[in-house]
Amino acid sequence: MRTFHLTTPISDADLEEIRIGDIIYLNGTMVTCRDVAHRRLVEEKMPLPVDVRNKAILHAGPIVKDLGNDHYEMVSVGPTTSMRMEKFEEEFVKQTGVKLIIGKGGMGPGTQRACEKYKALQLVYPAGNAVYAATKVQKIVDAQWRDLGMPETLWVCKIADFGPLVVAIDTTGANLFEQNKIEFNRRKEAEIQKINAQVRFIK
Amino acid sequence: MQAIEKYTYTTPTLSPKAQQMRDLMTNYITIVSRRLPDDVTKKLKDLAQIEVDPLQQLVYDTMRENQLLAETLKRPSCQDTGALQFFIKCGAQFPLLSELNAILKDAVYQATQKAPLRHNAVQTFDEYNTGLNIGNGIPSVFLEIGDNSTDIEIYVYMAGGGCTLPGAAKVLMPGEGYEGVVRFVMDQMTSYGINACPPLLVGVGVATSVETAAFNSKLALMRTVDSVSPNANAAKMEQLLETGINNIGLGPQGFGGKKSVMGVNVVNTARHPSTIGVGISTGCWSHRRGKITFDAALNYTLPMNKGVQL
Ligand code: SF4
């Protein structure tokens, strides 16, 4: 495990050395972006109203406090299951040029292809730590697609030291969760054998 | 097309005593949303000491820091504050029995604004969020009349979507035996367990049919993480499953590690000779489960939160 500190805008060279299992802390701009925003861009062909090129998106639906006069405060923000966006992510990365996709849990082959081809990373923030994450958001600088409601709005966040972010897919296309899954399933079969020898309660 | 009839809510008129109980429950729900019960806090601390790799340690450090911040800033510790559930054992002579449903629903409604909790009640088929965090059947109240006493015992539970998703139940043929139970639980761990924010508390129910088994599995999550089933064989199964799931090595957040679970609890009831019902429910590391007891005068105890006052 190595630790990297990145600041947006992010270049291809910034990500070249980073591998699955490494840790990133992020500074700069991160935009919350989840189900409907992905669908609008990819299926409805609506251009994203926020430029995320060389920046980061977060799969999350936060709790935001409206302070009036277009001022907002991030109360609580944690990632949601990224796999739901898998269907759209390859095309999303291609069209937007986003460099970091942050969420919860693993993603699949489409995202792997995108990370390899367009030099991007998929990252995981440890879920359940929503207050900690909110304190790393310094300011909400913009809000787009407000019509989607609080969870789906594109909240443009200025962040400092946002992390820890664990690298789940790197620019070679390696996939931490897929590798883990194979290993987990192998171990599971061995454990079931062991347990089943001892639970023959029906005789 | 017929217009959808929107869910509406008006605060009920409660007796003065019921209002008092409602206010105490509102405060307690708010506390449950930001403070983990003592058994979970202790277990996370123990597990953090076992995971020696820097990646796993970093995750446990983040959890510790997050819980401290939640306490200081008085905010819900996880953004997903679940759809509230209550598991209750009530004495038949408890004076507020007739107002109990109204008290609990209003407490959730009030706590939603106070904590604040996320709006997690979507009316099914009409498919809109009530925006109140209550709806038809939310909160869910499961009531058992225990004895003829004047006391009540209430478990409060907030489970997010992530740790609700692995829930499943199935009816096995007796020929599949307890080996079938083991397979069912273990498969669920590697498919859905990873996304349920491990280390998990795994609840296993064994009974006749899907609803009895599933209900038992949920009751199992109300028990403390280190508790042991009073049945010797069930206790053996708890131990075997705990070791087995730990050896899969999910680690915190599924990143891999030495441990996968905080514990495995089995709750069992008798079965029909021709079936074995098995149910599984999982609690995430942020297992926001509380317990409060009242007597007839509304003196309360909080056995899972030492030092907390409402
Ligand atoms: S599974 Fe638990 S900790 Fe994870 S996001 Fe859901 S409620 Fe929060």
From TrEMBL, chain A:
Alphabetical UniProt keywords: Lyase
A single GO molecular function term of this UniProt record: L(+)-tartrate dehydratase activity
Record InterPro entries: Fe-S_hydro-lyase_TtdB-typ_cat (IPR004647), Fe-S_hydroAse_TtdB_cat_sf (IPR036660)
Pfam family, one: Fumerase_C
Catalytic activities: (2R,3R)-tartrate = oxaloacetate + H2O
Span of domain Fe-S hydro-lyase tartrate dehydratase beta-type catalytic: 4-179
TM spans (from-to): none
Top EC category: lyase
Record EC number: 4.2.1.32
Highest rank taxon of the organism: Bacteria
Tagged with keyword RNA-binding: no
Family: Belongs to the class-I fumarase family.
Subunit structure: Heterotetramer of two alpha and two beta subunits.
Full protein name: L(+)-tartrate dehydratase subunit beta
Organism taxonomic ancestry: Bacteria, Bacillati, Bacillota, Bacilli, Lactobacillales
Automatic annotation (TrEMBL), chain B:
Requisite cofactors: iron-sulfur cluster
Cytoplasm in keyword set: no
Key words of the record: 4Fe-4S, Iron, Iron-sulfur, Lyase, Metal-binding
GO molecular function terms noted in the UniProt entry: 4 iron, 4 sulfur cluster binding; L(+)-tartrate dehydratase activity; metal ion binding
Highest taxon in the source lineage: Bacteria
Catalysed reactions listed for this entry: (2R,3R)-tartrate = oxaloacetate + H2O
Enzyme Commission number(s): 4.2.1.32
InterPro entries from the UniProt entry: Class-I_Fumarase/Tartrate_DH (IPR051208), Fe-S_hydro-lyase_TtdA-typ_cat (IPR004646)
Oligomer and partners: Tetramer of two alpha and two beta subunits.
Family named by the database record: Belongs to the class-I fumarase family.
Name of the molecule in the record: L(+)-tartrate dehydratase subunit alpha
Organism for this UniProt entry: Agrilactobacillus composti DSM 18527 = JCM 14202
